[in-house]
Amino acid sequence: MIISHPSARGSSRGRTTRPWAACVAVLALGATSALAVAPAAVAVPEPVLPADAWVDQFDSVELGSAWDVVNPVPSAWSLATTPGSLTLTSQTGDTYQEANTAKNVFMVDVPVGDFTVVTKVSAPVGKVYQGAGLIAWKDMDNYVRAGLTYVGALSPSARAIELDNETGGSFSAASFTDRAGSTGETLRMQRTGDTLAVSYWDATAGDWRPAGSTTVTFDVTQVGLYALAAQDGSSHTATFDYVAVDAAEGQDVVPTGTFSLVGPADSKHLVLTDTGLSFVAQRPASPLGLVATAVAGGPDGAATLAQAGTGLPVVVAGDGRLTLGAADATPAQVRLTDVGGGRLALRVPGAAAGEFAGVRAADGALVLGAEEAAARLTLTALSSAEHTLAIDAAGETVEMSDDLYGIFYEDINYAADGGLYAELVRNRSFEFNSSDNSSFTGLTAWERVARNGATATTTVVTDAQRLNDSNRYYLRLDASAPGAGIRNAGFNTGFFLEKGEKYDVEVWARSAVGQDLTVQVEDAAAGTTYATGKVRVDGTDTWKKYAVTLTATGTTAAGRLAVLAGAAGTVRLDMVSLMPQDTWVGPVNGRTHLRKDLAEKIDAMNPQFLRFPGGCVTNAGTFDTYLESNGTDRRRTYQWKETIGPVEERATNWNFWGYNQSYGIGYYEYFTFAEDLGATPLPVLSVGANGCGSTIPEMKDDVRIQR
Hints:
Layout: H1 31-37, E1 54-56, E2 68-70, E3 77-78, E4 86-89, E5 105-109, E6 115-122, E7 131-139, E8 142-150, E9 159-167, E10 170-178, E11 184-192, E12 195-202, E13 207-215, E14 222-228, E15 237-247, E16 252-253, E17 259-262, E18 269-273, E19 276-280, E20 290-294, E21 303-307, E22 314-316, E23 322-324, E24 335-340, E25 343-347, E26 356-359, E27 366-369, E28 378-381, E29 407-408, H2 416-420, E30 446-449, E31 456-461, E32 474-479, E33 485-488, E34 495-497, E35 502-510, E36 515-522, E37 529-537, E38 544-551, E39 556-564, E40 569-580, E41 585-586, E42 590-591, H3 596-604, E43 609-612, H4 616-619, E44 653-655, E45 659-661, H5 667-677, E46 680-683, H6 702-706
Parallel strand pairs: 29-43, 43-46
Antiparallel strand pairs: 1-15, 2-5, 3-4, 4-15, 5-14, 6-11, 6-15, 7-8, 7-14, 8-9, 9-10, 11-12, 12-13, 16-24, 17-28, 18-19, 20-21, 22-23, 24-25, 26-27, 30-33, 31-32, 32-40, 33-39, 34-39, 35-38, 35-40, 36-37, 36-39, 41-42, 44-45
């Protein structure tokens, strides 16, 4: 396709001109001129773009700086798949009402007012609500979108240009223009006053055809492109050939009341420094407030600015800096001009240094210069008022229970495993699976290692040789020689060891080959060992628990725990554990399996009650036990009887917050923790009524309720 542009506009009131793409070619103004360019072929007529339009043909290898990608998924868009086009792979999500989850919405700023935006898109649709096209918005609750969409029974051929309007979060489908057999459209969206009209290009007639209109009562600050996957999640490909945008020049704004300006990027806060008005990253105790006064008898939109409270005027220093002048100084006449996207340009027309205010990189100073360096600023209202708080110290008081202050605990964000529980090994019993989280497997946090030429295969197994019925999965390690094994990455950056401290290793193992297993904490490159020891597996091929104490020879926060075979053959492993000996010691129950630093902080809060184990963690899931489901139900409500007894016999379960619960901290540990804190235990029990969005029916079985 051949597209043209006229010369770029110079600076004009109310608009910062965007640069043209360097490689834009000559526009075919009609069939005649197209034939003159390419006489060997009959060109399909293309629409004439608005004379002053900003055009992006997507010819560059990088996306232009004018674009803002909302909810970006970088892997789902490309400028290279079809060179000279923007290709989107539609994703799940929508702008519909409260959803606001649409991904890869490509937007450019426009000033408030009338505009025209044109695009050509190829986007074959075949699943309900797959769609792609143009969108104009203030935000995701105030928008109009129009695109080629598969709408099913809503249109005779199921394919239509759907025009939607959502205002204040209330959605309505304005129109469906049937487009039987269409796999792509050239679309135009135009706002004139409060009316937004959509058209499609009829290549045969060489003219625009109406595709509906709607009334818009909100300000549009951005326009752009979207592609939405089907209702069932099926994606499709939308290829945008170009975008052309022509918008009315932005209006000048004279703010009322006290306001401040928010700067670009990280330096957002307006302050007064030795160099004048500047933007800084650190929030000040109080922002610099300004007031604007319209220039009497001057041009529309012209204003002067002064500091709120002091009345000191904003002036231009000799080197072009904006600063506060003396009380009797002549204020600069400025313009605050809408440049789109809800942002403003601060201008001082006629200034010798240039009329556009930019932010100097070295110190954040607001300095006048060329339009290309203009800062895009945001206006924010400030308010202040004096209030009086009267305290009657002799007034009547109310007695309050000491038990109203306590700890509201929930196993969320790894608060138990990886948090309060001192266990350093993640997925120690190889029980993780996709029921807990779609990314989990039995080898999550584990990797196979081979040392001294040995090789190994590692398989997570559940069969009759398992440790017990509640701990159904274990690791089978087949080693070709000593030195092959597995390694655990722990939580976060890895295992924390402190030089000189002791750590207890426990591992359940069985093998028909007697051997010494090496257990060691090393760095990720296996170049430094921080602690090492051996456990002797007796070769009776029965499950036994083996233990050894390690002493750290160095300090690290990124260790890895390796377990290495001592002989060729098969060894089965389960419940691989590493815990610091320096855990919290309760005043009543003695040493615990709780992290010392965290438990001490909780104790220092002097809570009067301890609520556990949580809310949604407790009351979302099925009501069977793990054993009743023969080890298949991994989405059960929290059942306290499954969380007591030897840890290797506690059933695994999913966690409502998207991970696995080992129940290493169970009801017994919570009760003893409360006792050591001197707090009243407040256990949370499921009553058989699911919450937190669960659709599992209420439990009404008397036997299970009694259990």
